[in-house]
Amino acid sequence: xxxxxxxxxxxxxxxxxxxxxxxxxxxxxxxxxxxxxxxxxxxxxxxxxxxxxxxxxxxxxxxxxxxxxxxxxxxxxxxxxxxxxxxxxxxxxxxxxxxxxxxxxxxxxxxxxxxxxxxxxxxxxxxxxxxxxxxxxxxxxxxxxxxxxxxxxxxxxxxxxxxxxxxxxxxxxxxxxx
Length: 178
Hints:
The chain is α+β, with helices and mostly antiparallel strands. The chain is 24% helix and 49% strand. It has helices at residues 80-92, 130-136, 146-154, 161-173; strands spanning 4-13, 17-26, 29-38, 42-47, 53-61, 65-69, 72-74, 94-106, 112-113, 115-126, 138-145. The protein is globular and about 55 Å long.
């Protein structure tokens, strides 16, 4: 049975998210469904240097606390590649000459309409981004060998779901999973 919506109302909205409450009929009958829609798709960047190290940012998240993540952010209506280049520079001070779109994914698809794009960035050049890192809430930039990043996931040091999924996309592309 397909889902049908009989009524919908906005309960909250800002420049990043739109929250609505839908009256629905689904496989198990009638009900209420809360949906968060991101106003623009997000981007996630696996920046890989010449030593095969992945770039991570450390920050404090209001909702979940300390987090180790790949550079990421909202596209703000830009083309996803343009947004990925901007986010990598703002959060890390890194630019890249080679970009590859690895795939598209959806965050929290049980409650959200939140499309995301994953990019692999290579041919890296380091610049200074201290001012923008502070503005972005970035406490540190860390470079971790790809294999060690997978260990950090297994040990529970990386818990951000989008970072884990983005690393899986990169691992598949790089032939790291056999």
